[in-house]
Each structure stands twice: as structure tokens, then as C-alpha cells.
Amino acid sequence: MIKIGLDASNLRAGGGVTHLAELLRAANPQTYGVKQVIVWGGTAILGRLEERPWLRKIHEPLLDQSLPYRLYWQRFVLDRTLRREGCDVLFAPGGSAGYGFRPYVTMSRNMLPFERRERARYGKSWMFLKMILLQQSQTRTFLNADGIIFLTQYARDVVMQEVKHIQGKNNVIIPHGIDKRFLLPPRVQKGISSYSVRQPFRILYVSIVDMYKHQWHVAEAVARLRQSGLNVTLKLAGTAYPPALKRLHKAIAHYDRQDEFIHYVGAVDYKSLPEVYHNADLFIFASSCENMPNILLEAMASGLPIACSSRGPMPEILGTAGGKYFDPEKPEEIAEILKKLIDDKVLRERCAWSAYTEAKGYSWEKCAQGTFAFIANAAKEKDKFDTRGIVHV
């Protein structure tokens, strides 16, 4: 029977935490010969994990501290801890591992370190330096890994282009799932004449406010629609990277001086998100850099018509019929696509049903099955590996 060690040291919030919580909730690892999964993490992440007979959660105080403490633990403590516990394989979903213990499986979950154009948006900043350091760390991790999980075909193609020596590595594409709470069949669409100043057409954008999310371009596009006489509003929800939030506030002040139709509401609790989606009339997603856009998948599952960025893996997830695409850096094009959807209720309904049907194909059960089968296979190949030949960059 296999014992898996799981390093959750660099999972703090957002999609990484959701992925691990849902993965373990849906898992049945005994099917693949796994007797125990041991998770090392901080208070926040361990609190999100449901109890399971085969799951053991170990709190490490260092993992509640800042990044240097977490890196120290991962670099100097984890290896001997895994050996002391008798683990057969390490799973590092955060994308950073490989300081000594073998075999290990990791995940590619952050595209910013590997997309130079997107990194450049941060200019000379700590965030830019962080992306460079992550690129180096994750490159070393991928080179040494005995298995790599990618979330989309797009992510695999980009990373393998940037890290050419991992071509031929044992890898698999396992998309994330969708929480069934988001599932809501598309409702009958109404013509734009049914909306008014008191009951406007509600456009929703859920995402962190960041340099590659382009909320300010969306704000300009919606302002254009308002100027054309359409009764539309824009709701922006999500945490924020301070320099990007400053840019967004500047755009809102310029395009909506009376605070009438553009509303940034900040972070929304994950448990409340289904209701936020279900109260919208249309969803917009304007990101130019994604690995696996969970937010887009949530909107699809929520039965919403979608206007979407044409960059990254978005067309791979949404499909050709699931929405209408735009260049996220061209506000006039965003406005054009929004207007096309708003003016055509039949198009909205057709896109919403196509996206909803696509979303139903994603499940955490499938994700868990694929993930544990892949990790178990790496553990069964354990005798082929030793610490010699580890690549350092």
C-alpha cells in the first residue's frame, strides 16, 4: 500500500487552496492502492480540508509565517520529514519541490512565470522579480520531477516551449473540476428593451484585479455602451494587486464620475459566489494570462452568456460556441462584442447553453481519479529513482 506525502506549504489562498480542498473531498485513493495521504500545511489550508479516514493533517508552525520561513521548511525540513513518515511519493501541487526526495509529482498552475509578455506588465517591481524567481524554481522542479500534471493543453504547450528539456517527461493533462453549487441551467433570455434604468442589464466580472486582468479596459467598454444608450451596469468582484487597483479606481473615476454604473465590491467569500453569478445577466472575462481559468468555468456552469478574452486557454475551455471573443486590450472591441450579445437574446441563449453543457463535463471526481492514478503510478516506479542526477538551475 502506498503512502503519499503532500506539500501544501505554498498554498495560501485562491485557486490552489480550492483545488486541494475539492480534490481531497472527492478522492477515493484506496482504489489506487493508497493507504494514507499526509498533508503538511499552515492553519488556513488545513482548516479547509475535510476529515477523511485516510487523510492525516500535520500543522507546521513555520508554514504560518512569511515566505522565507516557508522556503526554509521546504528546503531543509521536508525531505527528512517525508523519510521519517515512510512516504513512498511526494505530491507538490504548488509547483515547487525537488530538493532531495524522490519520486515526486508536481503541477504547473501558474503561467505568469513562463509568459514574458505578461511578466513585463509589472515593470521594475518586486512582483516582476518574484515571477523571475518562480520561473527558476519551477523550471528546476519540472526538470527533476518524475511526473508533471498540466491543467490545459495550452499550459503544457507553453511550458514545454519555455523549458525544452522536459519534453518527453512523464506528464498528463488533468483539468480542475467545478463545484456543483454553481450549476444552474441557463434561464430564458430577455430582449434589451425589457431592461431599464431601475432594472439594468447586469454585467459581471469576477477576478483578482491585476495587471493582466484588464478591468480598466472593461470599464471603458461598458462606459461606451452607456453612452450609446444601453441600460447596463458592471459589477467587479475580487481581491486586488494594489497598483492594478489604483489603475482601476482611476478608470472608474474617469468613466463613471457619478458612481452610477461601475461598482467594484472587493473580495467575495467563496461560499457566496454562486449567488453572485446567478444574479448576473452576462459574464465577462478579460484576462490575458491563465493556466486553468476556474472563474470562467464557474460562469459557464452558472448558465451565463459569456464575452471572453481570446488569449491563453480560454477558447480551449469555453469552446467555439460557448461565447464571443475579444482582444482584452482593445476596449472598442470589448464594447462591440458586449453589444452583439446584449442586442441578440437568441445568441445569448445559444452561447449560454453551449457553455453550460461544456461545464458539466468538468468534475472534481474525474480530477481526483486522474490525479491519484497518476501519483500512484509514480510511486510504483519508485525503485527506478534515486537522488543522483537531480538537475540544479
Biggest sheet, spatial arrangement of strands: 3-2-1-4-5-6-7
Number of helices: 14
CATH topology-level fold name of the largest domain: Rossmann fold
Poorly predicted sequence stretches spanning 5 or more consecutive residues: 385-393
Count of β-strands: 13
Distance, first to last CA = 34 Å
Averaged pLDDT: 93
- SSE string: EHEHEHEEHHEHEEHEHEHEHEHEHHH
Radius of gyration over alpha carbons?
Answer: 22 Å
Describe the structure.
This protein is an alpha/beta fold and 393 residues long. It folds into 2 domains: 2-177 and 363-384, Glycogen Phosphorylase B (Rossmann fold), CATH 3.40.50.2000; 180-359, Glycogen Phosphorylase B (Rossmann fold, 3-Layer(aba) Sandwich). 40% of the residues lie in helices and 16% in strands. The protein has 14 helices and 13 strands. The chain has helices spanning 15-26, 43-47, 67-84, 116-119, 126-144, 153-162, 215-227, 242-255, 273-278, 294-301, 314-318, 331-343, 345-359, 364-380, and strands at 2-7, 34-41, 55-59, 89-92, 104-107, 147-150, 171-173, 201-206, 232-237, 262-266, 282-285, 306-309, 324-326. Strands 3-2-1-4-5-6-7 form a 7-stranded parallel beta sheet, with helices on both faces. β11 (282-285), α10 and β12 form a beta-alpha-beta unit. α7 (215-227) packs across α12 (331-343). The model is unreliable at 385-393 (pLDDT under 50).
